[in-house]
């Protein structure tokens, strides 16, 4: 799949249904902290890749976990999309002028009290990542072709307060992508594959 096909599939397909976890969490959790992330698709050597980062272990929220560039919505942000773009620039040096946002997936609620809005974008030109060590321990990419293969995206039921919820995870090389990031990847891949 190239960028033209990616954009066409993204635009033409209808979104698959969210996991039941989302509606259940919406009823349980109130006062969720708003956050936004950038699911950036970068073409490298004629292959599409998803940009990911590993969070430093000193952070209070989700230390050491794999995530998309992004973070909490600040009062100075004019929109959730502005949050995702600002954070991507701060965390990995991806300038907002080098990004084309093509849409957003439904907001994802977490057990840790966040409601995360993911924005899907393509990177216009190659760039050299400049990571902020205060927010990012590692920058890496995963081929979209790997993620699109259903058997690479797994889930297990997890019981919390007597209710079972699916928890998504994706092992990739030395990385273990799980939780909200894996769930958003799964939703994007199901959207791209949806007929």
UniProtKB/TrEMBL annotation:
Matches recorded under Gene3D superfamilies: Nucleoside Triphosphate Pyrophosphohydrolase
Gene Ontology MF terms in the entry: coenzyme A diphosphatase activity; metal ion binding
Cofactor: Mn(2+); Mg(2+)
Keywords: Hydrolase, Magnesium, Manganese, Metal-binding
PROSITE patterns (UniProt xref): NUDIX (PS51462)
Stored CDD domains: NUDIX_CoAse_Nudt7
Domain Nudix hydrolase as annotated: residue spans: 31-164
A Pfam cross-reference name: NUDIX
InterPro entries: CoAse, NUDIX_hydrolase-like_dom_sf, NUDIX_hydrolase_dom
Coiled coil regions in record: none
Protein name: CoA pyrophosphatase
Source organism of the structure: Shewanella pneumatophori
